[in-house]
Amino acid sequence: MNSAYYCNHVLKNGLLPDIRRLSGNNFTFQQDGEPSHTSKHTVAFLQKSVPDFIEPSNWPPNSPDMNPVDYSIWGALQQLVYRQKIEDTDYLKQVLNSCWDMISQELINGAIDHAVI
To answer: Which of 36, 41, 43, 85 is disulfide-compatible with 6, CB 3.0–4.6 A?
Structure first.
């Protein structure tokens, strides 16, 4: 995935509207070291689009201890997705959406409750 696709489709038309719907502008945004996340284009987009964006130079190193909720939920989603035989990107998108819907709110709440803050 390149930076332009990431900014236009994933962030602008997907993730950021959902976050704003749930929390208004009361959120902090940080990403991992994926190249499309750290590109100059993406960083500039997020500096303009997100009220509290933590820039890559201030990101902690990759560690499950730093974000246990993310790793816990990602692991659950990964297990569900890997049960499917993915044949193309359209099917992958469909599987990701259906598997995400299978993750219970109880699992999410449990991951949050066990996070070390």
So the answer is: 36
Can you give the pTM of this predicted structure? 0.53
Torsion, Cα of 5, 40, 37, 117 (10° steps): -140
Residue type, 104: S
End-to-end Cα distance, the chain: 32
Beta strands in 1-117 (DSSP E): none
For the record, the structure tokens of 110 come out as: 């449990």
The residue type found at 23 is S
Question: What is the rounded CA–CA span in Å between residue 73 and residue 100?
Answer: 9
Per-residue pLDDT of the chain in tens (117 residues, 90 and over written 9) = 899 999 999 999 999 999 998 888 888 888 888 888 889 999 999 999 998 888 887 776 665 556 666 778 888 999 999 998 988 888 999 999 999 999 999 988 888 777 654
Three-state SS at 62: coil
59, two tokens: 């990101």
